[in-house]
């Protein structure tokens, strides 16, 4: 895939040269208003970007300034359950590598397994458990990005975790920490699956982010993962898929994500 071509194309469209990127997941796409927007390029115009149909009209790359720094915001992501391959899912990450991105903040919405959490909470992802056996690195290793085998012990970069915790303190945001259990969806989990995830050590569950973390770790991009709790997970009191709960929770965590990201960008190197 033509990650290089994609990045060169973007460089001809904007003078913004970001070192940090933010991926806005479910319930968070409106956060684009936190940035001073310079250039908007729909994913569909980027050469080599996985083909999207018109339900993806909100999927755009936005170049601009945030807290005075150049930033790339990816508004909307694609998911495995939509039929994309894992390799396709990580196209944006590899394109970012060629763009010179050093740090990516990945955001998502999740269900809470940990009963200390409630919808509306914001959780910093400490680590993950990946269920489902596919990997974006399956197949011939793309040597230009990294080695065949690589370490994932610091995939969620420790320095960024410290930075996020101190940024949260400054902003008076109650930032929880937890392990993210990755399920490929689109069906929500069964109560038995949630019990299994809880025993395995997962605090939250969701259907995104992990393939991107793997690709970022492979190519040496630092990762911070932030997850907004949109609902309690299946089998937990008032848990499972509930549109009303999810819609009420989104504005609560999205406000926190916005303030936290602004502060983090301010504090970053
Ligand atoms: N399960 C999986 N993915 C999710 C959930 C959930 O409960 N909530 C938001 N994304």
UniProtKB/TrEMBL annotation:
One of its GO terms (cellular component) is cytoplasm. Keywords: Glycosyltransferase, Transferase. One of its GO terms (molecular function) is purine-nucleoside phosphorylase activity. Pathway: Purine metabolism; purine nucleoside salvage. It comes from the Bacteria. It catalyses: a purine 2'-deoxy-D-ribonucleoside + phosphate = a purine nucleobase + 2-deoxy-alpha-D-ribose 1-phosphate. Its EC number is 2.4.2.1. The keyword Lipid biosynthesis does not apply. InterPro entries: Nucleoside_phosphorylase_d (IPR000845), Nucleoside_phosphorylase_sf (IPR035994), Purine_phosphorylase (IPR011268). Phosphate binds at residues 26, 57, 77-79, 109, 208. Pfam families: PNP_UDP_1 (PF01048). Residues 20-265 form the Nucleoside phosphorylase domain. A purine D-ribonucleoside binds at residues 189, 231. GO terms for biological process: nucleoside metabolic process. Belongs to the PNP/MTAP phosphorylase family. The purine nucleoside phosphorylases catalyze the phosphorolytic breakdown of the N-glycosidic bond in the beta-(deoxy)ribonucleoside molecules, with the formation of the corresponding free purine bases and pentose-1-phosphate. Cleaves guanosine, inosine, 2'-deoxyguanosine and 2'-deoxyinosine. This is Purine nucleoside phosphorylase. It comes from Monoglobus pectinilyticus.
